[in-house]
Predict the structure of NUDIX hydrolase.
Amino acid sequence: MSKISAGLLMYRTLEGRLEVLLVHPGGPFWRNKDAGAWSIPKGETDPGEDSLLAAKREFQEETGTKPQGTFISLGNTTLKSGKIVHAWTFEGNCDPAAIKSNTVKIEWPPKSGKLQEFPEVDKAAFWSVAEARVKINPAQIKFLERLEVIANKASWKTSV
């Protein structure tokens, strides 16, 4: 059975420009990766857990910010790993430099038997949708496209 993750795509409009918050995974594997490495804040759901509640929990764990507002479904996508990611979008704002992420323990260096603790997210940033298309994991581009459709229906200006 495929693993299920859930996440939130926070957006804001700044001077008429639509921007989205993406996070960069922490840990040594991701340290020198940029294009295609960023993500919406997301994480695995617990068995039987409501996906939207899981998305809110994961957002808060990875950013230190409690998500609030109206949540609009962006549907789901399947990553190369086979994991299915469900996402919602909401309007909000935060200081990306002030994020406080939970930590994870991983074996590092690989096969060393040593567990080290790293932040799950090491940085966050707001990006225009055009910039986000370059930064985000390619499988998650669908979420940006769906947000743009919603934004256009709502008559937001989405200049890049």
User: Anything to note?
Assistant: The two ends are 39 Å apart (CA to CA). The beta strands are 4-14, 17-25, 42-44, 72-78, 84-91, 103-107, 115-119, 121-128.
